[in-house]
Design brief:
- The complex is a heterodimer of chains A (240) and B (782).
- Chain A has 240 residues and is α/β, with parallel strands linked by helices.
- In chain A, 34% of the residues lie in helices and 27% in strands.
- In chain A, the strands form two sheets. Chain A has a six-stranded mixed beta sheet. Chain A has a four-stranded antiparallel beta sheet with strand order 2-1-4-5, covered by helices on one side.
- The longest helix of chain A has 17 residues, at 177-193.
- Chain A is globular, with a radius of gyration of 17 Å.
- Chain B has 782 residues and is an alpha+beta fold.
- Chain B starts with a helix and ends with a helix.
- Chain B has 21 helices and 24 strands.
- The chains are: A alpha/beta (240), B alpha+beta (782).
- The interface between A and B is medium-sized, with 29 and 28 residues.
Chain lengths: 240, 782
């Protein structure tokens, strides 16, 4: 499988002088299509920073980031935006759906931003939502959906089109255990079918679904465990 | 609660500074406007009455009559200030110069004369001139000026502080005696009206109206209240943002046991605090700037403003209005936020957007229909009932305009997939934050509506090409103003040689205008009729009876000629003896004795072009004569200002006067001013609202960035928000303004038809275009 995401020597430093904080230190990471990678670590360890840098929302202080074979450094803002529209999908803990748009409009948004006519984009979005069991909810606004439904809409938005890199930041953090596991199943399925998926989570039970589990501590990838050998024995991966 | 309000007030500095700036500015404008209006109303009264309670105007009098009338007035009223006047025609001036003789300083007329430069005249050959008159006469203190055939030494520049446009010459003795006079008295109510001058002269009594000043003040207060309503609508948006951001803090207060009433007091207390600070700052700024502003206003108001005369009651009213506006604006968003469950308030992210409201759709149309009906029933404002209906109608229409905002915003929020994504998102965002965007749209619509109403009404007041005093190609030359006194209008006798010289001067003027046509204008005179006090030949005039035996001249009677009659489409040799475009009933021919006449009606005509004619045959039949009164010059092209300056110089040299089409500059200035102010205020309001919306939707914009929106798409969103607001405001404001004007003047639709295209285009096209481009350019990327 080809590498969808590559991080080489990525370091991220915030602030200056006494207020300086190093969020990431010399990170090397490669994620391939078909792989589900879980990133675990305590609060403030740099997990979310890792995702935002991988997704071109932030620039590293040093090091290089390559997405789908394209190096982000030196890329113009709108080129990065194009990459996000066509190659990268985000799933956030608090869903981050646009509350003024219906479910189908939210899912169609990346396609519309990429220039696809609204009606065609919404037709594609409907298919994506149907694939996640939300056929009856396409015209509902986010406020009218349950937490699990909202996260499924967010996942549909992350994968709609032909995007191959899905970055999920605590996707089950705001959900109960049943819905949380359902979401991680979806992500695992998406990884298996066509994408590279990176999931940041606190939940070891969900991490057990991953092909690889990475631990971040004080900005360093301090350990790498290939599931199931590392956590399987503890967490019984794949258990319903 | 006040301590909590104060603690909360220390946060959200940016929004609060914006609010304080906005409210302070409005307060300063209110304080300045109310002070100026109060002084202006006082000035009008002062100009008419000085400090007297009544003024007896003797429009037609002479020294022997005054010798009888003044002592009689003194015995009846006590102290009497007498202002004697003599009107002199001066070559080159359209209006006669007014020579004035009065005691300075007078008992009642002290505020009506002030020395600007020099000293008051003390000898019969000395004169003091008003500055404008000195300029017209090209004279200054120390120089001589010829008035009434005498050389007078100018010893001072004087002015009427209550009317800076009052162009007069102050002398110690009128060379030809008074032709009119005013007696200033202080009399108990009704006593002056019963005064009958023993000379038999007609005295027109003017009595100070106690309501004049308060009516002007009332109108200024209404205008200030309207301004504060606009500002309050804008402030609602800012208070909504602040309230939204304070949600967790309010939730915390609620969680620790604060009642809803206490929480409500925190929010309204914050509004009162902001309002109080703004009121103090605004009033301080206004009062500090008042002396400077007053100097700027004086020439515009034609009034020397006493900067120490501050109407503190109205200043207090402006402060109260500011505090009330801020308090009301702060309490508006509080109701819904206080209805939230505490847990949602604590999270700062209510499940449903707390600012989304349902709008009763029938409210705005009902208010509009009721307002239009009231305006339609009011008619011309000539009674208390019509005034009340007009005020009620205007209030309902304003309320309808404000209520229409949320409706349109809700419609924008329902835009479907057929519109561009930026426009759709903008509509949805506006709808989500309808509380603040609707209030802002209401204020925008009101601004646009007021501007459109001003532009349309001032445009309809502009003379059409076939209306006004003269066409733009015409110049009216006259041998001099024919002073009308009562029912007598004498014209000086001129020799044939003198008339020939003046004819030649008129021909010179015509040559300067590219060989323009010259039509001599003659009046009908009655020879051998001796009228006391009138020098020259009495001109035949048309009069109407004004009651109490007073006849008012409505027109001079001109000798019909083929050239003049052709302007009215009348035959060159008319059958009827009298023709006129006057429409009054009860017309009489004077001055021999009032003779009822029914002239054949002529349609239209310019007001300064002769409009009442008698045929030469009728003149001969009656044994009357004719006298050259002027010349109507008509050029091929419109007469420019530069050409008219040359014409005026030629006319002055020849001793005749020149008149051209009135430019109606005030109406144009009002139109331009309303358009410019509305554009600037609207753009500022759009910018502020878009800024608030972008601040509120910053989380959404971060999502869009994550989804891959480009810089252009983010700018498109800001531009679409601004454009949607601007277009909705224009649709509402323009529509409501036209409907209101139609309702009030329904039987005069034609007056609204000359659409002021340039100004409306500036508003209706300029505002959205500038708003869209400005928002697109100024929108920050991230």
């Amino acid at each position: 499988m080809s590498a969808m995401l590559e991080l080489h020597g990525v370091t991220k430093v915030y602030g200056e002088g006494a207020a300086q904080v190093t969020a990431l230190r010399d990170i090397d990471l490669t994620v391939r299509v078909g792989e589900l990678v879980a990133v675990m670590g305590p609060s403030g360890s740099g997990k979310s920073t890792l995702l935002t840098i991988a997704g071109s929302l932030e620039e590293p202080t040093s090091g290089t980031v390559v997405v789908n074979g394209r190096q982000l450094a030196g890329m113009a803002y709108d080129e990065q935006a194009h990459l996000r529209r066509t190659a990268i999908g985000y799933v956030f803990q608090d869903f981050n759906l646009l509350p003024g748009l219906t479910a189908v409009e939210n899912v169609a948004m990346p396609l519309e931003l990429d220039g696809m006519p609204a009606r065609r984009a919404q037709a594609v979005a409907r298919e994506a939502l149907a694939g996640l069991g939300l056929t009856e909810r396409v015209q509902h606004f986010p406020d009218d959906l349950s937490g699990g439904e909202r996260q499924r809409v967010a996942i549909a938005r992350a994968v709609v089109g032909d995007r191959r890199l899905v970055l999920a930041d605590e996707p089950s953090g705001a959900l109960d255990s049943v819905n949380g596991e359902s979401i991680i199943r979806l992500l695992a399925g998406i990884a298996a079918q066509r994408a590279a998926v990176v999931v940041v989570t606190h939940d070891a039970k969900l991490a057990a679904w991953a092909d690889r589990v990475l631990f971040l501590h004080d900005g360093r990838l301090s350990d790498r465990v290939a599931a199931p050998s590392g956590v399987e024995s503890l967490l019984e991966p794949g258990a319903p | 609660m006040l301590r909590w309000a104060w603690r909360l007030a220390r946060r959200e500095t940016h929004q609060q500074l914006l609010l304080v700036t906005l409210l302070s500015l409005a307060c300063a404008v209110s304080v300045g406007g109310l002070t100026a209006a109060h002084q202006l109303a006082g000035a009008a009264e002062m100009s008419d009455f000085g400090t007297a309670s009544d003024v007896l105007d003797l429009a037609q009098t002479d020294e022997p009559s005054l010798a009888l009338d003044v002592p009689a007035a003194q015995s009846r009223f006590g102290t009497v200030d007498v202002v004697r006047r003599q009107h002199l025609s001066v070559p080159g001036l359209f209006e006669p110069v007014e020579l004035r003789q009065q005691v300075v300083p007078g008992h009642f007329t002290r505020p009506l004369v002030a020395v600007v430069e020099g000293r008051l005249p003390t000898a019969p050959d000395e004169v003091a001139l008003a500055p404008d008159l000195a300029t017209i006469l090209s004279s200054a203190p120390g120089q001589d000026v010829q008035l009434g055939g005498r050389d007078l030494r100018v010893v001072a520049l004087v002015e009427n502080p209550a009317d800076l446009d009052d162009a007069f010459a102050l002398v110690t003795q009128l060379p030809g005696g008074a032709d009119s006079a005013s007696l200033y008295v202080d009399a108990p109510v009704g006593l002056a009206a019963g005064f009958r001058p023993p000379s038999g002269a007609t005295a027109v009594v003017k009595t100070r109206s106690p309501g004049t000043v308060s009516l002007t003040d009332g109108a200024a207060l209404v205008a200030s209240s309207l301004l504060m309503l606009l500002v309050a609508l804008v402030a609602v948006a800012a208070f909504s943002v602040i309230a939204q951001r304070r949600l967790p803090q309010l939730g915390l207060l609620a969680a620790t046991g604060a009642t809803r009433r206490q929480l409500g007091w925190v929010m309204t207390g914050h509004g009162a605090l902001i309002g109080s600070v703004s009121a103090i700052v605004g009033a301080a700024v206004a009062l500090a700037a008042w002396p400077m502003v007053a100097r700027y206003l004086e020439p515009l108001l034609s009034y020397r403003i006493d900067t120490t005369n501050i109407p503190w009651l109205f200043v207090a009213a402006a402060l109260a209005l500011t505090i009330a506006a801020a308090t009301a604006a702060a309490s508006w968003p509080s109701r819904e936020l206080l209805a939230l469950p505490i847990t949602e308030a604590l999270s700062g992210r209510p499940h449903r957007n707390a600012t989304t409201t349902t709008t009763r759709r029938w409210v705005a149309p009902m208010l509009l229909v009721a307002g239009l009906a009231a305006l339609g029933l009011s008619g011309p404002v000539d009674s208390l009932t019509s005034l009340l209906l007009t005020v009620a109608g205007a209030g309902l229409v304003i309320a309808a305009t404000v209520a229409t905002g949320p409706l349109l915003i809700a419609t924008a929020g329902r835009l479907g997939a057929s519109v561009a994504v930026a426009v759709r998102l903008a509509g949805r965002d506006l709808a989500r934050y309808r509380r603040r965007s609707g209030a802002a749209l209401g204020a925008l619509s009101l601004i646009i509506g007021l501007a459109v109403a001003t532009v349309v009404t001032t445009s309809s007041a502009v003379y059409a090409a076939d209306e006004g005093n003269l066409s733009d190609r015409q110049v009216m030359l006259r041998v001099g103003e024919i002073p009308s006194r009562g029912d007598v209008a004498p014209i000086p006798e001129r020799s044939p040689e003198e008339v020939a010289r003046l004819d030649a001067a008129a021909d010179d003027v015509a040559q300067q205008l590219g060989g323009a046509s010259v039509t001599p204008v003659d009046v009908t005179v009655i020879p051998n009729l001796d009228i006391a006090g009138a020098e020259g030949l009495p001109v035949a005039v048309l009069t109407v009876d004004e009651g109490d035996g007073f006849h008012r001249i409505v027109d001079l009677v001109y000798v019909a000629s083929a050239q003049l009659l052709s302007r009215y489409g009348a035959p060159s040799e008319p059958g009827p003896a009298f023709l006129s475009n006057r429409t009054e009933t009860g017309l009489m021919l004077e001055p021999i004795r009032p003779e009822p006449v029914r002239p054949v009606h002529l349609e239209g005509g310019y007001s300064s072009v002769p409009g009442t004619f008698i045929t030469p045959a009728e003149v001969t039949r009656r044994g009357w004569g004719t006298a050259r009164a002027g010349w109507l010059i008509e050029a091929e092209d419109p007469v420019t200002a530069d050409e008219f300056d040359v014409v005026r110089g030629l006319a002055a040299t020849a001793g005749i006067t020149a008149e051209r089409r009135a430019q109606q500059g005030n109406l144009a200035r009002a139109r331009d001013g309303a358009t410019a102010i509305a554009l600037l205020a609207s753009l500022a309001l759009v910018a502020m609202t878009v800024g608030l919306m972008r601040a509120e939707t910053s989380a959404d914009r971060r999502i869009l960035v994550a989804l891959g929106s480009s810089r252009r798409q983010q700018r498109d969103l800001a531009a679409a928000t601004a454009g949607t607001l601007a277009l909705a405001a224009i649709a509402t404001g323009t529509g409501v303004a036209y409907l209101s004007l139609l309702a009030q003047g329904g039987d005069q639709l034609a007056q609204l038809l000359p659409v002021p295209g340039a100004h409306l285009a500036m508003l209706c096209l300029g505002l959205p275009v500038v708003a869209v481009i400005g928002s697109w350019v100024l929108a920050r990327d991230r």
